[in-house]
Design goal:
Length: 690
């Protein structure tokens, strides 16, 4: 067994930058999903259901700067291997396990994407499919999906090398780490997880390990539980932001898996039978101390995941076999490739739930990833699900007995605070900044985690100045601060103290303080701070933030006025995100002529795919409908999971043309008719519900 730094040479894309503007939280903090039958749900299953599910990305920035053009690229990896398995991790993509290969056969245990193709899926936008990812923080994958994380090589008591991947999570102010072990003679990769909440208050906790497996004909998914929460589309139409296409609403149902199959009309253990993008969650059972989930193939091959009971729940997701599902698989890979399903392990009942992690608590677990061959492969394809999974259950229990898993968990736990010696990847500098803050006040950084001073860069320096000098530095009016700090009360109090001191308080500090207040839900006070900032020094960022707040209240006339002020302050020379937001507000305010005029005034070098899509709405409303035709042939970078925007545009284009042909006015009734009679071409069909 050995571990070493390597490189993956493959066609792909890379993050080319981040959106510098703060993207504020949804004012609807909690979003409780709809239920198929509320009477079926026990009260305890409703606890924390939908809590903190509203959009929330700050203090992180959106990662929406990347190309869709695949090029030859090199990606830094770390490899861990023994005589049976080879595991390769992508260090610049959240430590994702890109590949897990059985060396004797060359068989890939996971879905290994043939390219690195970034798409708009995760909470920060950027995401890649394939492999295994480690999701902490909030619904929407993870903040680290396309970010560099810390990694180190260590040795256990027997001189076996293992890999540690870790980071500091800024939203919840937590420390997380994963130690990957592949002992000599083992046909199983082990991940020992540790999350440390060393604050004096509880925090909402979210963790899901997301495993992509190849979806081929006959793939079947089983779990140790037969009790599930399933999700079904209602196929309802509802009012939505026309610029942020969303799927038809889903409802959550609760029952035994056999009953769910009857309700939905097909065997949901077969991903290939889904006609929409669908998922369901296996509920943990009190007496199941080592829950598992498995992907079973017709040739008898089984990939499985088993864990200690900290990760009590499991999930299956598939894109579905409709045009939209197929499109998404290829969109995240390349044409003719990318077909996968996901099996997952998590801490809470669903990804719409979270748990309360108590103050001053450490949570640890061990999960494993392995494979095997069933002796009687046909037995797993009988219709009765409980009968079909018996051989799979036996295979897993023989391969990774429950007692053995817990013995290894204890062993790995003893190594969790071992200090790294060989640091092979440097992540964010905010871990080092937090370490420095704690040197003034607070507990030390958990043992086993190193955050060197050298990691501190431009993003952290303004906060280091605040920490050491009690002053937040001033930036020029045409410079956007390099980072945001929104949820940590320690930094809030430091900045508040500086603001309230009145000593040479600058516009940059007032703007930052407003960002903090907005994320705390103090919206009016936030706007007051931004107005004070602009009064001191007229600046595009303060005006834009005010416009954002006004838009959230549907006060579009006022929002348009403040965005115009931002433009007049030179916003378009600062970043193209200002142009995206201004044209969006114009369209929300139904100022289609102004939006069309604004688009045509923009220099070509700042026109993004998002601006093109927004301009498409203006074109359809101003008699320029033929302008959208090239959009239908373009693979757009900004398409979001669940978007119906491009298909809605297709319908509207054809409704306009049909109205002219008939010599009638465009109407909702005609649009509805077109939606029922005109097909959306597969190449622009991104609908997750057809």
């Amino acid at each position: 067994m050995k571990a070493y730094v390597s490189a993956l040479n493959i066609r792909g894309t890379k993050i080319e930058g981040e959106n510098p503007l703060p993207m504020f939280r949804d004012r609807e903090k909690d979003k409780v999903p709809k239920l198929v039958n509320p009477l079926e749900w026990p009260d305890d299953m409703m606890i924390n259901f939908g809590r903190d599910n509203g959009f929330k990305v700050l203090p992180y920035k959106m990662q929406d700067r990347y190309s869709r053009v695949l090029k030859s690229n090199q990606y830094k990896t770390v490899v861990l291997e023994n005589e049976y398995l080879r595991a390769e991790f992508l260090l610049d993509f959240g430590g994702k396990l890109y590949s897990l290969t059985e060396k004797s056969t060359g068989r890939e245990l996971l879905f290994k994407n043939p390219v690195i193709q970034i798409g708009n899926i995760a909470v920060r936008n950027a995401w890649t499919s394939g492999g295994i990812e480690w999701n902490i923080g909030i619904i929407g994958h993870t903040f680290f999906t396309c970010s560099t994380v810390y990694a180190a090589l260590l040795k256990d008591d027997n001189n076996n090398q293992f890999v540690r991947i870790y980071e500091y999570e800024r939203l919840r102010q937590l420390w997380w780490q994963l130690d990957f072990h592949l002992p000599k003679g083992s046909r199983t990769l082990y991940a020992h997880g540790r999350i440390v909440n060393d604050k004096n208050c509880s925090v909402p906790m979210y963790w899901w390990t997301n495993m992509a497996v190849e979806q081929t004909r006959g793939l079947r998914v089983f779990s140790s539980s037969d009790e599930i929460i399933y999700i079904v589309p209602t196929f309802e139409k509802y009012n939505r932001d026309p610029l942020e296409g969303k799927p038809s609403p889903y409802k959550f149902g609760y029952c035994k898996i056999d009953e769910a199959c009857q309700r939905l009309g097909f065997d949901i253990t077969y991903p290939e039978l889904y006609k929409w993008s669908g998922d369901y969650f296996y509920l943990g059972q009190p007496d199941d101390k080592a829950p598992w989930i498995a992907a079973v193939y017709p040739d008898g091959f089984v990939f499985f995941n088993r864990s200690t009971d900290r990760l009590k729940y499991r999930k299956m997701f598939c894109w579905g076999t409709h045009n939209g599902g197929k499109k998404w698989c290829e969109y995240l890979s390349e044409k003719g490739a990318g077909y996968y399903a996901e099996i997952q392990s998590g801490m809470a009942m669903t990804q719409n739930h979270n748990l309360d992690m108590p103050a001053n608590t450490t949570w640890e677990w061990t999960e494993c990833f392995s494979c095997g061959i069933l002796s009687g492969k046909n037995a797993s394809y009988v219709p009765n699900i409980n009968e079909a999974k018996k051989d799979v259950c036996n295979l897993i229990e023989i391969s990774i007995p429950e007692n053995e898993l817990y013995m290894l968990d204890e062993k790995f736990s003893a190594l969790a605070d071992l200090m790294p010696v060989d640091l092979i990847s440097i992540g964010s500098g905010f871990g080092a900044l937090e370490r420095k803050r704690r040197e003034y006040h607070g507990p030390p950084v958990p043992k086993g985690l190193i955050f060197p001073d050298s990691s501190i860069g431009a993003e952290e320096l303004p906060w280091l100045t605040l920490l050491e000098k009690g002053v937040y530095p001033e930036f020029d009016a045409d410079v956007i601060p390099p980072s945001w700090m929104t949820d940590d009360p320690n930094w809030f109090e430091m900045l508040k103290k500086y603001i309230e001191s009145g000593k040479d308080v600058n516009h940059s500090a007032l703007t930052q303080y407003g960002v903090m207040l907005y994320e705390k839900g103090e919206y009016d006070l936030a706007v007051e701070m931004w107005k004070k900032s602009a009064l001191l020094v007229p600046n595009a960022l303060a005006y834009r933030n005010i416009a954002y707040a006004l838009s959230a209240e549907n006060r579009f006339d006022e929002a348009e006025e403040y965005m115009r002020k931002a433009i007049d302050c030179g916003a378009l020379k600062m970043d193209h995100a200002f142009a995206e937001e201004y044209i969006r507000i114009l369209i929300l305010n139904k100022k289609f002529d102004s939006a069309w005029e604004f688009y045509n005034s923009l220099p070509e070098n700042i026109i993004t795919d998002k601006i093109l899509m927004l301009a498409g709405h203006a074109a359809l409303e101003t008699g320029n409908e033929d302008w959208v035709l090239p959009l239908f042939k373009r693979e757009l970078q900004n398409i979001r999971e669940g978007d119906t925007d491009i298909s809605d545009m297709w319908f509207k284009y054809h409704a306009i043309k049909e109205a002219k042909k008939r010599g009638v006015a465009m109407s909702k009734e005609l649009l509805s008719e077109i939606e029922k009679t005109v097909e959306v071409p597969a190449y622009i069909d991104y609908r997750i519900v057809p």
